[in-house]
Amino acid sequence: MGTIEEHYTVDKEEHSERYEVEKLQRELDRLQKRKNNLVDMRLDDLIDETQYQKKYNLITVRIEEVEISLQKLQCDGKEIEPVDVTAEIQKIQEYLDKACNLEEKQISGELIEAIVERVTPTEEGVFKWYLKEEDYDMEMQFQEEQYVLMDRFTLGFEEAKAYRKSFGNFIRAKQWKDLVVEVYIKKL
After folding, report:
1. Residue 67: helix, strand or coil by DSSP?
2. What is the pLDDT of residues 118-166, one digit of tens each?
3. How many Å separate Cα 134 from the centre of its chain?
4. 3-state secondary structure of 105
5. What span, in angstroms and rounded, lies between the C-alpha atoms of 154 and 66?
6. What pTM was estimated for this model as a whole?
7. Is the distance from CB of 114 to CB of 145 less than 8 angstroms?
8. Is 57 exposed, middle or buried (0-12, 13-18, 19+ CB in 10 A)?
9. Could you read off the pLDDT of 45-79 as tens digits, one per residue?
C-alpha cells in the first residue's frame, strides 16, 4: 500500500493548482515509462511495426498535451511552494500507534470504525472496503461511483491458520477459501 507520505494529500482549494501540477507530472512520468516499454517491446519483436507506430503516436500526442497543460499551470506567474504536512502525518502515525498493536497483529475495532465507511461483500468473495474521508458525514448518501480502487490484497490459508491458531483454534485447508479485500478511497 505504500507509506502515509506517498498517499497523503491536502484537499484544500488553495492547493488545487499544485495538485493539478503534481497529477500532470505523475501522468507525464507514467507516459514516459509506457513509451520506454513500448520501445522495448518493439526491440524484443513482441509487437509489429504497425502496432508500435500506432501506440507510439498516441503516447507522443498525449505527452505533448500534458506538457502544454503543465506549462500553462506553471507559467501563471505563481511559484508553487511545497506544503509541509509533517505535523499532520505525525498525528496520523500517533493515532495508528495507539489503535494498532502490531506485536499482537491486531487492529482495534475503534480504528476500523474510524476509517471504514462501508464494507460490501460480493458474490465473488471480494470484500470492498470504502474508507471514510476526513469530513465524513453520516447523513450523506453513500455513492459507490465516487470511490476509486486504492489497493487489493488477499488473505490466504496461511494467514487464516495463524490467526485461528493464535486463539487456540485450527482450520483445515478444505474449510478455507481465500478472501480478497479491495480498499477504495474517495476520488479527489
Report:
1. helix
2. 889 998 889 998 888 766 566 667 788 888 888 888 888 888 888 888 8
3. 16
4. coil
5. 36
6. 0.44
7. no
8. exposed
9. 888 888 888 888 888 888 888 888 888 877 665 55
